[in-house]
């Protein structure tokens, strides 16, 4: 929630990390204005949003840095782990390149402490081929999402994902909120009737032991008990999509 940023920054805050969650672009205009006013960097987490657009620009091109994941299940995925960082700041990119290569620009010239975080050439080759297909695959995801939204919008127990005006999501995941009192039964019914579902982030990050921050994030905590991810990928057949809708309706009616 962009409105919550103002009460969560302190004198120690250096940057705002904006997450384009599930492939739906975040509301960038007010975040960028706030960051500029307060001298903060903006880091875009685009791990689930390859090719998504808002305000006629691709995500990853708004902030100081954009970060993408090439994990195999992403909209643009390699055959293994991988990722990239994009920025218009040349000096920043030079530093990031050094960090990814043991802190070295030249072999054995380690000027900072770095990591071994290079994308190998086989993964890069696969990604170059798949990149040409990305827009087409994303368009198929949009059509599936549109069908879900049109067919499920009449049910008050289902809260559907929304996107800002002038935004084109890429629907890495299609996540609904089930707001009835029988959430577990709903999930079980779908799975028992052949609809494969997932529950992403059942424990909010700020509640985990590793990142326990002592925060009370009302939306995160509430939604984590309501979320369910429906099947979505470019290779779903129409019969499969319609069956998902049919099973959900059967439970709700």
Biggest beta sheet summary: 4 strands, mixed
Radius of gyration: 20 Å
Q: Strand arrangement, largest sheet? A: 1-2-5-6
Strand content: 5-15%
Mean pLDDT: 94
Nutshell version of this structure?
This protein is an alpha+beta fold and 253 residues long.
Fold and architecture overview:
- The chain is an alpha+beta fold.
- Helices cover 34% and strands 14% of the residues.
- The protein contains eight helices and ten strands.
- The protein has helices at 5-8, 28-37, 90-100, 121-131, 134-152, 183-192, 218-223, 238-252, and strands spanning 15-19, 41-45, 53-54, 57-58, 65-69, 83-86, 158-159, 167-168, 174-178, 227-230.
- The strands form three sheets. It has a four-stranded mixed β-sheet, with helices on one face.
- The longest helix has 19 residues, at 134-152.
Write the layout of secondary structure elements.
Layout: H1 5-8, E1 15-19, H2 28-37, E2 41-45, E3 53-54, E4 57-58, E5 65-69, E6 83-86, H3 90-100, H4 121-131, H5 134-152, E7 158-159, E8 167-168, E9 174-178, H6 183-192, H7 218-223, E10 227-230, H8 238-252
Parallel strand pairs: 1-2, 2-5
Antiparallel strand pairs: 3-4, 3-8, 5-6, 7-9, 9-10
